[in-house]
Amino acid sequence: MNRRTTAASALASVIALTAGPALAGCSTSSDSGPELKVSGAFMPQPVGDDMAAGFLTVQNKGGGADKLTSVTSDISDDITIHESKNQKMQEVKAFDVPADGELDLERGGNHIMFMKLKQKPMQGEKVAVELRFEKSGPIKVELPVKEPTYNPPATMKH
Ligand SMILES: [Cu+2]
């Protein structure tokens, strides 16, 4: 009699234990989205008073692609993103930030274009911008203002 009761409660606890992992299995993993990080940002001190360009790299360590869709800053209400092709630049709607890859904005290529500057950024200052993406939340970055001819050394590309 006593023995049977023990067996029954042992069986009950086995059932209780197996219910646990089944519930835990409901949690979803979210490692498939983009994971963005910005590095190497700078702005060459503009030559004129009216417009400037900004450069940076957006790294994506996540498994999902994203897009840079717009940029805002206090120094200008007219900021667009441009690509350069055959020595000419043109506005684009978005830049791709590939999954497990990066978006490079660099001199002679893709860049952020600041028009109708409210004040001219001077070397040594920093320009705060906010990058907006299709999927990821906005990222705030400070662009150190460098000499007009500044070009960072090329980094290893993969
Ligand atoms: Cu441009």
What is the annotated CATH architecture? Sandwich
What's the average pLDDT? 86
Share in helix? 10-25%
Bound molecules: copper (II) ion
What characteristics describe this protein?
single chain; 158 residues; mainly beta; ten-stranded mixed β-sheet; 1 helix; binds copper (II) ion
Task: Provide a descriptive summary of the structure in words.
The protein has about 160 residues and is mainly β. It has one domain: PCu(A)C copper chaperone (Immunoglobulin-like). About 15% of the residues lie in helices and about 40% in strands. The chain has 1 helix and 10 strands; from the N terminus they run αββββββββββ. It has one helix at about 1-25; strands spanning about 35-45, 50-60, 65-75, 80-85, 90, 95, 100-105, 110-115, 125-135, 140-145. Strands 1, 2, 3, 4, 5, 6, 7, 8, 9 and 10 form a 10-stranded mixed sheet that branches. The radius of gyration is 26 Å and the shape is elongated. Mean pLDDT is about 85; it is low at about 25-30. Copper (II) ion (CU) binds near residues 89, 111 and 113.
Short note summarizing the structure:
By secondary structure, the chain is mainly beta. It has one helix and ten strands, in the order αββββββββββ.
Element layout with pairings:
Elements lengths: L1 H23 L11 E9 L7 E9 L5 E8 L4 E8 L2 E5 L2 E3 L3 E4 L6 E5 L10 E8 L5 E8 L12
Parallel strand pairs: 1-10
Antiparallel strand pairs: 1-2, 2-7, 2-8, 3-6, 3-9, 4-5, 4-8, 9-10
The structure holds copper (II) ion (CU).
